[in-house]
Design a protein that fits this description.
Blueprint: E1 13-19, H1 23-27, H2 32-40, E2 50-54, E3 60-68, H3 70-73, H4 79-84, E4 90-96, H5 103-112, E5 128-130, H6 138-156, H7 164-178, E6 181-186, H8 189-192, H9 196-202, E7 210-216, E8 222-227, E9 229-233, H10 242-245, H11 253-268, E10 273-283, E11 295-297, E12 303-305, H12 313-325, E13 331-336, H13 340-346, E14 351-355, H14 358-371, E15 375-378, E16 395-396, H15 405-414, E17 422-426, E18 430-431, E19 441-442, H16 447-458
Parallel strand pairs: 1-3, 1-4, 4-5, 8-10, 8-13, 9-10, 12-16, 13-17, 14-15
Antiparallel strand pairs: 2-3, 6-7, 7-10, 11-12, 14-17, 18-19
Protein name: Leucyl aminopeptidase family protein
Keywords: Aminopeptidase, Hydrolase, Protease
Length: about 450
């Protein structure tokens, strides 16, 4: 399902955005029967409320959409999507009341409200279709919505149907749609090609571990995206309790998000050289599982002491980052559902990111506001470097003590980025409660903010 704007304004029902308390000013210019209808229904413009105004034939002739107050709007996003979800099937157009600087975000929210994960059950999202508001880039918004829907579908699909094989196929499908190339290193070939940590984490699973390498574009600055593709995480020999394992189908959310972002980039034809690296594994339990106390040697030669097999995401990312750094791209960005510590710090709605580039951080913050894709900068805090140095090896994959877990994981990853400008996102990838344009389930985080920020950062 690809969300799209309505292709015609014919018979479109006008939607009037009304701030709370503004219903009287609007209805004063309407015929008496409309004024009476608004009053009789008690419409006040409360955020997310709506009122269908019938014509003489009983069919809707207009919609009033509550736009609330500035204080209420600040507590959420995609407010028009809340209205769209309750409208009858049909075509609608924004007639008045929507600030020009919010038109793009609200139109995107309407598009995303059409999403429903229907692979296993017949269900639908919003049936109401919107005519693209005047002044918005409809092509761009549709590309963003399509990329987000890809991310959601990949995360929502359980590991029974989204193991490393299926994730690889998803990359081939995406590459085929946009003329990209794909190379895959699988199983024991990972050892031969020097990806020892990807192999160690994934070797116990029925489906072989692999490194997926997609390339697109032959001119412009080089951008490498690295996404954690742990298709299911049992925790390995440090087995997770049942409650902690319940959502582990989403542990490939980083891979899903970089693929959604890649689709946006390719669909919009950005002038850059894109590389996507996905270490795809399942962290399983078997007689050949890697063990606590093992010491692994990564692709770049650094040794890593394994103090917890449930801190596996940083291991597979390390080999992929080391590979990416060998070409010294202009920017390398990793995205991963990496630590519970990040959720404790900022909750499920914010995507924390780490970068040493102040200009990129500022661009990300601005892009996040423009795209209604909230992010929050966290520090590569150098004094904590010693926490990831165990003494017996170069690095510790799970420092004791439990403090600063997201920061130490980010510092660990930075050790494999070499001299490449590096940014890391520690995302959640899941919306735990339904919200406008964001049903419960898989969700992209940080991709829209990055899409907005990268042109300025890369000089596109």
């Amino acid at each position: 399902m690809t969300p799209e704007f309505a292709d015609t304004t014919r018979n479109a029902i006008p939607v009037h955005m009304i701030e709370e308390g503004g219903q009287t000013a609007w209805s004063d210019d309407q015929p008496p029967h409309v004024q009476a209808w608004v009053t009789a229904n008690g419409f006040t413009g409360a955020l997310g409320s709506h009122l269908l105004i019938p014509g003489q034939d009983g069919a809707p002739m207009a919609v009033l959409a509550g736009y609330g107050t500035a204080v209420a709007r600040a507590r959420g996003r995609f407010h028009l999507a809340a209205v769209a979800a309750n409208l009858p099937e049909g075509t609608y157009s924004i007639a008045s009341g929507l600030p020009a600087d919010q038109a793009g975000v609200e139109a995107l929210g309407w598009l995303l409200s059409a999403y429903a994960f229907d692979r296993y059950k017949d269900q639908q999202g919003t049936k109401a279709r919107l005519v693209a508001p005047q002044g918005v880039d409809a092509v761009r918004l549709q590309a963003i919505a399509a990329g987000e829907c890809l991310t959601r579908d990949l995360i929502n699909t359980p590991a029974s149907d989204m193991g490393p094989d299926a994730l690889e196929q998803a990359v081939h499908d995406l590459a085929g749609a946009f003329g990209a190339s794909v190379a895959v290193t699988t199983g024991d070939d990972l050892l031969a090609q020097n990806f020892p940590m990807i192999h160690a984490v994934g070797r116990a699973a029925p489906q072989e571990p692999r490194l997926i390498d997609m390339r697109w574009g032959d001119a412009g600055p080089a951008l490498t995206l690295v996404g954690k593709g742990v298709c299911f995480d049992t925790g390995g020999l440090n087995l997770k309790p049942g409650n902690s394992m319940a959502l582990m189908k989403k542990d490939m959310g980083g891979a899903a998000t970089v693929l959604g972002l890649a689709q946006m980039i390719m669909s919009l034809g950005l002038s850059l050289r894109l590389r996507v690296l996905i270490p795809a594994v399942e962290n399983s339990v078997s007689s050949n599982s890697f063990r606590p106390g093992d010491i692994l040697t990564a692709r770049n030669g650094k040794t890593v002491e394994i103090n917890n097999t449930d801190a596996e995401g940083r291991l597979v990312l390390a080999d992929a980052l080391a590979l990416g750094a060998e070409e010294t791209p202009d920017q390398m960005i990793s995205m991963a559902t990496l630590t519970g510590a990040a959720r404790v710090a900022v909750g499920p709605d914010l995507a924390p990111f780490y970068t040493d580039d102040d200009a990129l951080a500022q661009a990300l913050s601005q892009g996040a506001a423009q795209a209604a894709d909230p992010v929050w900068r966290m520090p590569f805090w150098a004094p904590y470097e010693k926490m990831i140095e165990p003494g017996i090896a170069d690095l510790d994959n799970a420092p004791a003590g439990g403090f600063a877990g997201s920061i130490t994981a980010a510092l660990f990853l930075r050790r494999f980025a070499g001299d490449t400008p590096f940014t890391h996102f520690d995302i959640y990838g899941w919306n735990p409660t339904p919200a406008p344009a964001r049903p419960k389930g898989g969700v992209g985080q940080g991709a829209r903010a990055l899409l907005a920020a990268l042109p300025g950062v890369l000089g596109l």
